[in-house]
Amino acid sequence: MNSADLGGAGPSPGGSIPRLDFNPPEERIPGFEIINLATLHERRRRRRPDAVHRVDFHTLTLVTEGSGEHAVDFVTYPCRPGTLLWIRPGQVQRFVRPGTANGTHLLFTPAFPPHSSSADRLVNEWYGPACWQLGASPDYAVLSTLLGQLRAEYGRPEQAVSAEILQLLLATVLLQIDRLPHPDGGGDPHAGGEVYTRFRTELELSYAATRRAADYAHRLGYTVKTLTRACTAATGQPVKHVIDGRVALEAQRLLAHTDEPVATIARHLGFPEPTNFGKFFTRHTGLAPGAFRLAHQGRQ
To answer: What is the pLDDT of residues 38-76, one digit of tens each?
Structure first.
């Protein structure tokens, strides 16, 4: 539950997926908390332990012992010593099998990292890898040390803990994560440069309003060719595929995790005709909307 109370969760835009605000039981430092993963699971056991939800903040988890499973947007990741998870605002997640996994669980709002740091860019990107399997690598050792320093500072007496030190240490953690190789060998978002970063920001704002690459190019002051070049460099896919992929992801989320009628979901995502939405969804997932919903809701 990421340290928030499910009872205070509100519906997410365009659906009824529970959404958790940053609301720790005891907020020692505004916008920041660091706890044991086992403590988080203990809080969850008092309510529904496997509830699907979104969060309005970031969570970083470094597993140090035990095992379990965690699902993020239809991908289930095994959790074992050396597993690093980064869940971003808006992503849909579920603790499939908390198991015996323990480690460090860090929560922070998008406003918490220092804005003067380039880490601020990482926080404002809604996309990116969710899981790395670091094992006992040097990268794991570096991150473990940095998180230990965060815990030590956070654990100081309340009047002595420094929010600025926490912010700077967190920025270092994020920049260190940014150095990690892409876990699935996929594209490199940095290869798309500022063009790709601006495009993804606009896409997140407008994916339900338009799927036309020309509209994004016009809004951003680029040509479609420029957007395609940036998207291909970053993801290996042209701009239209990136746009449609974002729409398809939201459609999957709403079909799997809400009871909204298919026609309502279609309208929310910019399809006036449900039949056109059905063709689009089937083309991207291989299943009709109803079949996809039946398959995924039956697993929850």
So the answer is: 888 777 666 654 678 888 899 999 999 999 999 999 899
Q: What is the pTM of this model?
A: 0.83
- 156 contact partners, CB below 8 Å, separation of at least 6: 162
Residues 220 and 198 sit within 8 Å (Cβ to Cβ): yes
CB 103, CB 63: distance < 8 Å:
yes
